Amino acid sequence: MLSPDAFLFVAVVIFAIGLIGLMLRRSLFVVYLSIELMLSSVNLILATFSRVHGEMGGGVVSLLMIAVIAAEAAIFLALIIYIYRITKSVDSQSITQLTHKRDEA
Amino acid sequence: MQHLLSMILFLPLLVAFTMGIFRVSIETLRMVTFGSSLMVLLFAVVVTSYFNVEGGMQFVHNSSWISHYGINYSIGLDAISLLLLLLIALLMPLIFLAIWEEQRKGYFYNLLLLQAGISGVIMAQDLILFYLFWESMLLPIFIMIGSYGYGMRHFNAMKIIIMTVFGSMSMLLAIIYLGYTHYTTVGFWSFELSNLAQLAFDSKTSILLAGAFLLAFAIKIPLFGFHTWMAPAYSSSPTAIVVVLSAIMAKLGVYGLYRFGFTLFEIPLGFYTPYVILLCLIGIVFYSIHAIMQRDLKRIFAFSSGAHLSLITLGLFMTNIYAWSGGLYLLATHAIASAGIFLMIGMLGRRTQNIQIAHLGGIASIAPRFAFFFAFFALAITGVPGTGGFVAELLIIVGAFKYHFWVGVVAAMTMLGAILFIFWTLQRTLFGTTQEVTKHFGDLSAIEIGILTPLVIILLITGIFPSLLLDFFDASLSTNLEAFQGGVK
Amino acid sequence: MEALLSLIVILPFLSATILGISYLIDSKKNLSNTYYATIALTTPAIVTLLSFVLAFEISTMPHDTPLYAHLFDWIKVGQFHIEMRFMLDRLSMIMVGLVSFVGTLIHIYAVGYMQDDEGFGKFFAYFNFFLGSMLLLVVASNPIIMFIGWELVGLASYLLIGFYHKVSSNITAANKAFIVNRVGDFGFIIALSVLFIALEGKGFDFEAIKEGIEGLSSSTLSFVGALLFVGAMGKSAQIPLYVWLPDAMAGPTPVSALIHAATMVTAGVYMVARFGFLYNEIPHIGEFIAYIGAFSALMAALMASFERDIKKILAYSTMSQLGYMFIAVGLGAYGAGIFHLFTHAFFKALLFMGAGAVIIALHHEQDIFKMGNLRTFLPKTFITMLIATLAITSIPPFAGFFSKEAIINHAFLTQHYTLWIIAITTAFLTAYYMFRLIFVVFFAHSTKTYPHLIPLGKMIIYPLIVLAIGSATVGFLGIGHGFAHFVALPDRATPAPTHLLEYGLMAFNPLIAVGGIALAYRLFGTNPKPSKANIPIKALFIHKFYVDALYDRLFVSTLRSLSLFFDRVVDAKIIDGFLGLLTGGYRHLGVKLVSLQNGTVKTYATYIIFSVSLMSIALIYILEAQ
């Protein structure tokens, strides 16, 4: 039986990778993957603590989250394709519609 | 009977939400809104018929709303509020008729909300309720100017909302302070006007509180110095909004002073009286001269509204029976006359797409009916005898002389003020030879004449038989005036 | 009788409404001129009949019991209780009779004059409206109702001066008339308000005022009297508010005859006579009025002597004659003033209508130096105008002789010799400029012919003849102060003249007039030349003393630049500038903050992560603290 610390350590590492990926990479796919990584690390933490406390609630929630992540993947990928069709690019720097400068008209 | 006022208040809201939920077509929308405004008018007439002129506050309805803070849904009417209610109830159907061709649904929704807000301000007897309606009345105007306006509409919409909200914020603070004081001195929260009027303050506090209220109303009226939102907002507004702005909204500032200012702070307002009177007198002269060189019809009549509102406020602050009656009378007749003139400017704008005076002219020779109605309303604004404005100005001038000789002299200048620019405006708009934009000017249609005729008739009746209306609110006024003068002593 | 009195005022308003509505509805011009003319003429005719019935009734009653007709309470606020009540005493009876009779004749004339105008119906709507307003003015039983009539005649005058509204300068003239009149009304309303406040609680009918003013101080009364006269200055075109009257000739000629000669402009005189009881308390203000009147008379006569436009000559002449009336009422000879008003209405209306006939016949030519020899072409017009001219130059036995002589002699007998000299000089000038007009228009260039002369209809000629008979005869009413006794106004006492003095004065006035006629004949009898502005004093007269230019510089330009100043400096710079300072700091902060919002997803994600981290740390601290 491994100590829960090992699991938590892995989870934190994965989360950090996801975080760094999210902040540094420009491709929307990679950004998406980073977000998924972070979500997975949270899942791992949930499952770990579920085991530590001997309750199945956390495990159930993590299963539920996997289902949600799957649904999210569908929407997210569709959105990326949609954005690509409009901007011909999957570079997150190129999508700046939210800035204050556009709304002059 | 007791729910009649609530029906007047909530019918427009109900209609707006129902129509919004079902996303009805524009044809249904205009029929239903017009029908509902007629219904409100009918209710208002019923209220009037059951109204007892000697009876003070009537149709009172009071139920608890946010009971922890003593905020009540408390409404009622006296003769003066009834007068305003009748005005708005009468004008709304005419406005809906005037925008009959309008394709944008937002017009109808916003106007319905506006009507509800205004009715609420008129009826509210609870200060928080009043504040709620006071602010909610601004929203539709903001949206309408911003979405359907002309010129620098975004900037001007922001300007009107920032300036008026600044004023009402100070009023809100004062209201909350009043309620809190009621809590600390009496022991329970209350924002009911009649309760708060019982509170006593030391003179410094009460002067501050009165000032906070005064600021809100002075911006709304607007008095001289608080007026720079007025002309831009008028010139950017769509017709329907200008009519409401000038005919009703501006008058609500005076109404607020009368209802809340004078009830709550009769003594500290005495402290401000000389300053307010000075501002009013400056306003009368300043607005009239300012209007001379304006190039846009809406701006010209915006300043004319400003001058008349200064005169009304002057009448209110002179606190004698002539000036009060005159002020109130002017409030009603100027509402009708300015509604008429702004409706006509809208009709003119629809025909020419241009209300710059330099491009107009010669309308009288090809559209005599238009010229007649336009000249009639313009003359009614200058206070020609036979129209209600004359009676009102006469009473205010007499009251002003009773107050002080020099105040009287400046007040009498209104007789000169309006004609300085209105006759020149008439000359350049209606007379002379036609220009490019007025070459194919169509005369008024039957519907348009139908919209304007009731206003003409009201102005004539108020001018020829002023006793009818004056007797109606005489009792209310005398009672309040006596109470007020008693308070000062 | 009461009902008849009310009808006199109501009927013209009613028919004006009917005519106006018909005109507005009838956009395709289906209604004939006959329809409009029938309604328009019936009304003044009925009113004239009614006024004769009432006149008969009044003259049989003692002079201090007027006839009253109470319609309704107009205003009742506090002590301000104004009734819509009409009063017919002998003064207002004279006015009602005069206005309706002369009014009827001018209505008939106007039907002929306006025959081809497309605004025929509108014209008569305005005309009837004017008639009603004027009658309201004269029968009002309190000054407020009188003021309503006073304002409404001003409005009617505005509408009618600007009747040819396609020409912008006509509207400018109309505006000028209304605005200058309102300046006078400004004085009027101040006077009324002060008077009301001083009398508060004692009622505000003329009778109540008469009783009430006894308790008032002389300074209050002087103030009220002077400001009331400011109203009269505006309406009756006296110095310095006369500038509108010459320009008012832009209206159709019947308008000039009815409003700017016979009726409306005399309202100021009527008002002073009506307030005679008040002016008797303050004779110094009365003298002031008389001097203003005298100078107006002289100045107008000087300007008339150099004018070329036939209607403007008559306009100045009206102003000049009004000056005479003010001399009379100012010196307390109300009866004499009203008598001159009465006779003047006949001959001045006639002169205007004659001038209108000439203008129409010559295709709207108004310059007298382009006319001449017309007596052979327009004999009826010539004879009637000659009678009127003899009347105005006070040649006996025509009407003006009796009335003007009474005024001039009154000035002499009350020892106002300056006034007397001015009045005599003006009489000389009157004879000069009126006969200048007659000679230039009807005699000069005896070979001149007019191939395209438009024939004048009966509707135009008959009223001229009726008025000519009037101009020749109504003067006899004044023999032995008969008229003044009948009107029974509170005249101030005058020293009775000796017989010798009386006859001397009586002979002196016509002699002066003959002198003026002789001068006019010498200069203009055969070969007239228009005067040129070759010497400064002449230029002053031709340019109307530069008063228009002065007013323009003083008021119009000042107001316009002030308006621009308010717009560009006070509003834009001072008030909005101040508000800008308040909002400015807020704005700067916004500009700084806005750079945080750069639109890239990554930056936003970073913000979120940082904030979540911060919140987590805070949470841990809070939890540990517990």
Summarize the entry for a quick read.
Chain A is mainly alpha-helical and 105 residues long. Chain A contains 3 helices and no strands.
Task: Count up the helices of chain A.
Answer: 3
Low-confidence stretches of chain A: none
Low-pLDDT stretches of chain C are none
Number of helices of chain C: 24
Give the class of chain C from helix and strand content and strand pairing: mainly alpha
Please report the distance between the alpha carbons of the first and last residues of chain C: 102 Å
How many β-strand runs of chain C? 2
Radius of gyration of chain C: 31 Å
Determine the oligomeric state from the structure: heterotrimer
Main β sheet profile of chain A: none
Distinctive features:
heterotrimer; A: about 100 residues; mainly alpha; elongated; C: about 625 residues; 24 helices; 2 strands; globular
Question: What does this entry look like structurally?
Answer:
The complex is a heterotrimer of chains A (105), B (489) and C (626). Chain A is mainly α. Chain A has three helices and no strands. Chain B is 77% helix and 3% strand. Chain B has helices spanning 4-22, 26-49, 79-98, 105-123, 127-136, 138-148, 153-186, 193-196, 203-220, 230-236, 239-264, 266-292, 297-318, 321-352, 363-366, 368-382, 388-403, 405-412, 414-430, 446-464, 466-488; strands spanning 58-66, 71-77. Chain B has a two-stranded antiparallel sheet. In chain B, helix 14 (321-352) packs across helix 21. The radius of gyration of chain B is 22 Å and the shape is globular. Chain C has 626 residues and is mainly alpha-helical. Chain C is 72% helix and 3% strand. The termini of chain C are far apart. The model of chain C has no long low-confidence stretch (mean pLDDT 85).
Topology (SSEs and partners):
The complex is a heterotrimer of chains A (105), B (489) and C (626).
Chain A: H1 4-24, H2 28-53, H3 57-87
Helix pairs in contact in A: 1-2, 2-3
Chain B: H1 4-22, H2 26-49, E1 58-66, E2 71-77, H3 79-98, H4 105-123, H5 127-136, H6 138-148, H7 153-186, H8 193-196, H9 203-220, H10 230-236, H11 239-264, H12 266-292, H13 297-318, H14 321-352, H15 363-366, H16 368-382, H17 388-403, H18 405-412, H19 414-430, H20 446-464, H21 466-488
Antiparallel strand pairs in B: 1-2
Helix pairs in contact in B: 1-2, 1-4, 2-3, 3-4, 3-11, 3-14, 3-20, 4-5, 4-6, 4-11, 5-7, 6-7, 7-9, 7-10, 9-11, 9-12, 10-13, 11-13, 11-14, 12-13, 12-19, 13-14, 13-17, 13-19, 14-16, 14-17, 14-20, 14-21, 16-19, 17-18, 17-20, 20-21
Chain C: H1 2-25, H2 33-60, E1 67-77, E2 80-88, H3 90-113, H4 120-139, H5 143-161, H6 168-198, H7 206-212, H8 218-235, H9 244-247, H10 253-262, H11 267-274, H12 276-279, H13 283-305, H14 310-330, H15 334-361, H16 379-392, H17 399-413, H18 417-443, H19 458-473, H20 482-487, H21 499-524, H22 536-542, H23 547-594, H24 601-625
Antiparallel strand pairs in C: 1-2
